[in-house]
């Protein structure tokens, strides 16, 4: 921690509109080097706030059990102060790490006391968010809570069976409500997710605020790609249902010579590799794994269509990234994904590889004018998800000012 961390942030800057910069403490259960929507949003939020002149600190699990402490970490040329809590890998999950719940307040209380933040922004209610929220509440610090979490996604890595799952979900959401009631405002990425959260936590007010993307980082290619490359970006996890896409691949017209590129890592890669081999399409499926940002951005720019087969997306940042790259999107008709499709692609019946193949064929065989119209529609829709709008909204919440839910981008 820097020596002047306990000084008040009193200077005004042009970046903050002439108002006093804020000292913001973000508490997250997942953060870089993790690759998932919540970690990506937390990083983008922190970088955006820092660029606006605010002092930003992050509390998150360490990436191994011994790497605990406060560190200056660099992300895209910006240095952030990250307070890492000793963490341990969840045995049934490839990458998820957690701090022991009963240690969080003990280890974060000195950090919060030294920083005296203007606001604490928790990114979940699970472990780190829960402990930090309670500590901040007892100190009278404003709390903003954002939910990116679907308990249904985590239950796959727990011993609960189908018969006990409804009870487990009820308990999980009741537990979430206890933490979110401490927050002055609760947010989630989409209106659909907000409705879901209101029902799950007994009707508390919830604001829909897009995670947002910095569209200036993405490039849309001019013209139509020569090939037919179907792209997916994200964790290669069970809830992403990538097996549906691989099963759809041999159903596409052979003349299209369509390829499927997966950008991301995860525990499903061996199973998906075996499935591709079984279906005879292993030479048409590429697993790029975890790649540098420039490779991901280039893959999106050079792609023909983006696919999102997941049925558990509260927003889908990777779909927003694809739209910012000018790609048509074919997505499962589930959760928040329908809000991202309006003339820029198609929805398909979740889990139905035949319907997915039909919708992909519609994109890949569309006349040039229709294909270009889908690309332009993606670029138009992404304007409503501009990261600067998201940052301004959270700045207002941090200062205790009223805000309304952000538009869906239709």
Would you kindly provide a written description of the structure presented here, covering whatever features stand out?
- The chain has 13 helices and 16 strands.
- The chain is α/β, with parallel strands linked by helices and 410 residues long.
- It has 2 domains: 14-212 and 386-398, Rossmann fold; 215-385, Glycogen Phosphorylase B (Rossmann fold), CATH 3.40.50.
- An 8-stranded mixed beta sheet has the order 3-4-2-1-7-8-9-10, with helices on both faces. A 6-stranded parallel beta sheet has the order 13-12-11-14-15-16, with helices on both faces.
Give the structure's gist in a few sentences:
It comes from Curtobacterium herbarum. The protein is an alpha/beta fold.
- Tally the helices: 13
In the CATH hierarchy, the third-tier topology of the largest domain is known as: Rossmann fold
Counted up, domains total 2
Approximate shape: globular
Summing up helix and strand content along with how strands pair, one would put the structural category as: alpha/beta
Named at the architecture level, the CATH assignment of the largest domain is 3-Layer(aba) Sandwich
Q: Ends: how far apart?
A: 43 Å
The unreliable regions are: 1-8
Summarize the helix and strand pattern as letters: EHEEEEEHEHEHHEHEEHEHEHEHEEHHH
Secondary structure: helix percent: 25-40%
**Strand percent estimate:** 15-25%
Rg is: 21 Å
CATH-level-4 superfamily name of the largest domain: Glycogen Phosphorylase B
Main sheet specs: 8 strands, mixed
How many strands?
A: 16
Report the top-level CATH class of the largest domain.
Answer: Alpha Beta
- Average pLDDT reading: 88
Arrangement of strands in the largest sheet: 3-4-2-1-7-8-9-10
InterPro entries: Glyco_trans_4-like_N, Glycosyltransferase_grp1
Keywords: Glycosyltransferase, Transferase
Protein name: D-inositol 3-phosphate glycosyltransferase
């Amino acid at each position: 921690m820097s020596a002047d961390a306990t000084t008040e942030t009193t200077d005004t800057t042009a970046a903050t509109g002439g108002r006093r910069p804020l000292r913001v403490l973000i508490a997250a259960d997942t953060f870089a080097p993790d690759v998932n929507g919540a970690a990506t949003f937390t990083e983008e939020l922190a970088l955006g706030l820092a660029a606006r002149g605010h002092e930003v600190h992050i509390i998150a699990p360490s990436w191994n059990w011994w790497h605990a402490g406060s560190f200056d970490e660099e992300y895209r040329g910006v240095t952030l102060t990250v307070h890492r809590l000793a963490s341990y890998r969840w045995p049934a999950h490839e990458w998820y790490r957690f701090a022991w719940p009963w240690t969080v307040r003990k280890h974060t209380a000195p950090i919060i006391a030294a920083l005296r933040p203007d606001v604490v922004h928790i990114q979940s209610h699970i472990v780190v968010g829960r402990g930090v929220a309670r500590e901040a509440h007892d100190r009278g610090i404003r709390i903003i809570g954002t939910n990116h979490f679907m308990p249904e996604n985590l239950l796959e890595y727990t011993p609960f069976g189908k018969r006990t799952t409804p009870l487990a979900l009820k308990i999980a959401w009741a537990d979430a409500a206890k933490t979110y009631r401490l927050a002055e405002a609760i947010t989630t990425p989409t209106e659909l997710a907000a409705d879901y959260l209101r029902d799950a936590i007994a009707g508390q007010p919830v604001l829909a605020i897009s995670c947002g993307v910095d569209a200036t980082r993405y490039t849309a290619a001019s013209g139509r790609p020569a090939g037919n490359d179907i792209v997916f970006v994200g964790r290669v996890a069970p809830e992403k249902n990538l097996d549906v896409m691989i099963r759809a691949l041999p159903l596409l017209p052979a003349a299209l010579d369509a390829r499927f590129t997966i950008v991301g890592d995860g525990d499903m890669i061996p199973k998906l590799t075996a499935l591709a081999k079984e279906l005879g399409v292993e030479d048409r499926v590429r697993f790029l794994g975890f790649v540098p940002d420039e490779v991901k951005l280039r893959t999106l720019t050079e792609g023909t269509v983006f696919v999102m087969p997941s049925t558990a997306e509260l927003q889908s940042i990777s779909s927003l990234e694809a739209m910012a790259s000018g790609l048509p999107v074919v997505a499962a008709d589930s959760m928040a994904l329908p809000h991202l499709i309006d003339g820029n692609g198609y929805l398909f019946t979740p889990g139905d590889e035949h319907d997915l193949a039909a919708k992909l064929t519609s994109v890949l065989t569309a006349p040039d004018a229709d294909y270009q119209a889908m690309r332009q529609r993606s670029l138009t829709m992404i304007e409503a998800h501009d990261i600067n709008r998201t940052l301004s909204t959270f700045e207002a919440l941090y200062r205790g000012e009223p805000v309304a839910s952000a538009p869906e981008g239709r």
